[in-house]
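During the reporting period the student researcher (J.K.) took over the structure-prediction task from the postdoctoral fellow and processed the backlog of single-chain submissions. One of the processed entries is reproduced below for the supervisory committee.
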Amino acid sequence: MSIEAILSILDNLEKLHKSLLRIAHDKTALIKSGDVQGIDALLKEEQAHLAAIVQMEKERQQKVIGYMNGQGSPVSMNPTVSELIEATPEPDKQRLREAKDRLLHAIHELKWQNDLNQKLTYQSLQFVNLSLDMVRPRPESANYSKNEIEGKKEVKDIPSFDSQA
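J.K. obtained the following structure tokens:
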């Protein structure tokens, strides 16, 4: 098992994450414009990317396990790239570190963009709720009024009845 196959998988993972980042940027624009159908289409595309990333990650783990077993290194069930770097001879360590750094950079950018989209979506929902609250009629208060709490009754509605007459 060569390190080239693992580097190729890491490059493909980086490309998939950058493609997801492009989708996240497009989603930001659609959230700002309020295009719900466009967002729905992007969500379907995003799901396809996520499925490909999961599949690629499984393949990466299999290749890493095979490589580390071939090197005679102990291997965990879910080996990380950091574990692989530790078990790799020096000439390949630098290439693996660079691939890892590029992938982590793409993941961090994607995380930042998704956080922004989450905040924009939340603000949009707040605006919709505020707009609905302004349009809806207010129900009568189910609470006591201030006068009722203080024990004062309004006298104008109480009829006078003299039982001694």
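The committee noted the following: The mean pLDDT is 85.
J.K. will present the remaining backlog at the next meeting.
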